[in-house]
Automatic annotation (TrEMBL):
This is Putative subtilase-type serine protease. Gene3D superfamilies: 2.60.120.380. Its EC number is 3.4.21.-. It comes from the Bacteria. One of its GO terms (molecular function) is peptidase activity.
């Protein structure tokens, strides 16, 4: 069966990749690979660390929706070796010993001499000891002669050097931004999107959850070093003893990051009879990791009793990689919850949120959808739902998929998807509690709400058709979080199989990599009665195995995705979006793509996707010199279907790679655009001090003086540094100074040396 869909057009792959490569070189886009913690409780303010790249001149952090405000506190670039050496030289010039190395490495034990136990440190001269700061063995506090401001600078430098890793496990997340996020007490619960805004662009979005219970946060990880074959232990994290296992009180949300080879443990007290729910968000937070297999953090949850005996375990919840444990406490006592990667990988972006406690959790609803504009009566099953009420979609809800949540007196449940359509609705006989009496007659067009309610069950339906009539049979189940892996079979009256389908790939499925819903479209060969059989591919079944089966004539339609989910344009410049058309039920007509509405200062010539074309580009131009912040844009497509005009709003998306190979379109909530002036010099964050040249370069000798007694001219010595090297050094000094990592004296001295070297 098909697992994932790779978005590629063989004929266009080469030129398209070259085009993207050139665009990327011309204007690198800000990128964020993780946000930790990836959420916060309502009514609290938290510090969040984001790792990414191309984040120079970051100035803003934005969170979608209302009730959440964010601001940037600090930006820490990944330092190059020359910058590290400059910072170390500065500390040494002040008589302060630089840190021995990054604190993420495991502590090195002294090498023992043969037969003499531990080796003694080699004695140093008085001068060397002074430079190394031996008067302060720990090297943690500068000497008393330094001012308070300089002391703070030195502490910043030490912190940067301690956190620095020469070779990070992932360069794509080595630049760090610290932000502050304030969540209002009445902010809406659920997932939001967080982005960073630099002077030249808007980053991709990441999930940021707004939670309802107190939060526990482990200290943020520094950059993980790359693993070297044969020296893997050097990349392992040395966690303090008090961080290995934490004591918590339920209910709460646990936030952590898993390092290579690491297990995080949480100890808590529980009472007999409590129905505890442990839900994990990991892959949901960061759905795809390009350089990891299977392409995401695969967490495992294990629950132990007070004596260390395993009492519950999960590594997948149904078909979803994020585990869930539902546990009824057998007796009073202490329990320990442990989380790790399935194969003990880890680094900064292997992060998680575990919500734990006696909280409402919906394991299933039925039916999985309803007709638009009609009251929906929906039943639910799950844990801790006494007194809970399941929200129903508003009467004016448009066709599509919405989320429903069960509201208990104190807490809200997990959201579950619910489909709304315009076709007539029916129920499978068994789903309504009636006995199965052979094929159930259908009158297409219709959507049947049913269940494969026991292992080995097969639901059979019959309908009348005419020769040449086009018929579609489509299952909507996995896309509504049902564990059903459907198989559809269409037979004629004699029992002959006319069509059979297990999985059909849906480019609009976003993060779902198992396309398990079935689809058949066929022209009937003759008048007569036809049978549709629906079953699970693994012959599984149960109360949660619901489905919606659509049977009827084709409904040609389309959906659009635009990539990327943000746009950066130079002053009075232009940029382009890639448009993906998802064609449904055989629709192959032309689609006109355009900007929706008339955003001030932005124009786009309508682009056309020709008949059957799946991909194209929409060019966007601006007449603006710059925008003070991101401006929301929207894209729509227009087509004529069966003589009527159909308009569909495009969904912004990110083209994400999974496990070095497969690509997926991950939906985003909005499409922000930023216009910037590349010639405008940013205001320095810390104006550099005036530089007075304290010593002059040696004067150029006259021709006579340069002539030796033998009448030969001395060869002029080649310059020690090129102009390019000097310019690079000056840029490094300027950046480090603006980042408040260099003292005025050290900066002046280094710049003067560069001037002399010219």
């Amino acid at each position: 069966m098909s697992i994932v869909r790779r978005f590629a057009a063989p004929g266009l792959a080469g030129p398209f990749l070259l085009l993207l490569g050139g665009a990327a070189l011309a204007q690198p886009r800000p990128y964020i690979g993780y946000a930790y913690p990836a959420g916060a409780q309502r009514g609290t303010t938290v510090h969040v660390r984001l790792g990414g790249q191309q984040l120079d001149e970051v100035g803003r952090a934005i969170v979608s929706g209302t009730g959440v405000e964010a601001k940037v506190l600090e930006y820490h670039r990944h330092l190059n070796p020359q910058e590290v050496q400059l910072l170390r030289q500065q500390l040494e010039s002040m008589g302060i010993r630089p840190p021995d190395g990054p604190r993420v490495r495991a502590p090195k034990r002294p090498v023992a001499a043969k037969g003499k136990g531990r080796a003694r440190p080699k004695a140093k001269s008085a001068a060397a000891a002074a430079i190394a700061g031996e008067a302060d063995p720990e090297g943690a506090t500068p000497g008393p002669a330094l001012s308070a401001e300089t002391r703070r600078l030195v502490e910043r430098v030490r912190a940067r050097l301690e956190a620095h890793v020469p070779q990070p496990a992932s360069n794509a997340i080595a630049d760090l931004v610290e932000i502050e996020v304030a969540v209002a007490a009445d902010a809406e619960l659920g997932p939001r999107e967080i982005r960073l805004v630099t002077r030249k662009g808007v980053s991709n979005p990441l999930v940021f959850d707004i939670g309802q219970v107190p939060e526990v946060r482990r200290p943020a990880m520094d950059s993980a070093p790359i693993q070297v074959l044969g020296k893997e232990e050097q990349s392992l994290r040395s966690r303090p003893e008090d961080e290995v296992e934490e004591r918590v009180t339920l209910p709460c949300t646990l936030n952590g990051q898993v390092a290579s080879g690491e297990v995080n443990r949480y100890r808590f007290a529980a009472r007999k009879g409590q129905r505890l729910v442990f839900t994990t968000a990991a892959r949901r937070l960061i759905p795809f990791l390009a350089d990891a297999v299977p392409g995401w953090f695969q967490p495992t949850l294990t629950l132990y009793d007070g004596r260390g005996h395993e009492v519950a375990y999960d590594d997948d919840y149904r078909f979803m990689p994020d585990p869930v444990i539902l546990f009824e406490v057998p007796k009073d006592g202490e329990y320990v919850l442990a989380i790790a990667d399935a194969i003990y990988r880890g680094r900064e972006d292997f992060l998680y949120r575990i919500t734990a406690g006696e909280l409402p959790f919906v394991t299933g609803i039925f039916p999985l959808g309803a007709a638009a504009g009609r009251p929906a009566k929906v039943g639910m099953t799950g844990w801790n739902l006494d007194g809970a009420t399941l929200e129903t979609p508003p009467a004016d809800a448009a066709p599509g998929v919405v989320s429903l949540t069960a509201r208990a007196p104190a807490f809200a449940s997990n959201p579950v998807p619910f489909a709304i359509d315009t076709l007539p609705e029916a129920f499978e006989d068994e789903a309504e509690g009636g006995p199965s009496r052979g094929p159930q007659a259908l009158a297409p067009p219709v959507i049947v709400n049913g269940r494969i309610d026991r292992p080995g069950d097969r639901d059979v339906f019959a309908f009348r058709g005419r020769a040449g009539e086009a018929v579609v049979a489509e299952v909507l189940a996995r896309r509504l979080d049902s564990p059903l892996d459907s198989v559809l079979t269409l037979k004629d009256a004699s029992g002959k199989i006319l069509a059979r389908n297990d999985d059909r790939e849906d480019p609009g499925a976003g993060t779902n990599t198992h396309h398990a819903d079935s689809y058949i479209m066929i022209d009937l060969p003759e008048d007569g009665t036809y049978r549709i059989e629906l079953e699970d591919a693994a012959r599984a079944g149960g109360e949660a195995f619901g489905y919606r089966l659509r049977v009827g004539p084709p409904r040609p339609d389309f959906a659009l995705r635009v990539v990327p989910s943000s746009l950066a344009l130079r002053a009075e410049g232009e940029a382009s979006l890639e448009v993906h058309a998802i064609r449904r039920d055989g629709f192959i007509g032309r689609i006109e793509v355009r900007l929706a509405g008339s955003p001030a200062g932005f124009v786009a010539e309508p682009a056309t996707l020709a008949a059957g074309q799946a991909r194209g580009r929409l060019g966007v131009r601006t007449t603006l010199e710059a925008t003070p912040g991101p401006v929301p844009l929207a894209v729509e497509g227009v087509a004529r279907i069966d003589g009527r005009e159909v308009i569909r709003r495009a969904v912004p998306a990110e083209d994400r790679m999974q496990a070095f190979l497969w690509r997926h379109l991950v939906p985003a909530s909005d499409l922000p655009a930023l216009v910037f002036d590349p010639e405008a010099a940013p205001k320095p964050r810390r104006p550099a001090p005036a530089i007075a040249l304290t010593f002059a370069p040696e004067a150029e000798p006259s021709p006579a003086a340069a002539t030796t007694a033998a009448g030969t001219r001395k060869a002029k010595a080649a310059p020690k540094f090129t102009e390019r090297q000097i310019a690079g050094r000056l840029r490094q000094l300027k950046i480090l100074y603006e980042e408040d990592l260099l003292t005025d004296d050290f900066y002046r001295k280094q710049v003067a040396e560069c001037q002399v070297a010219k």
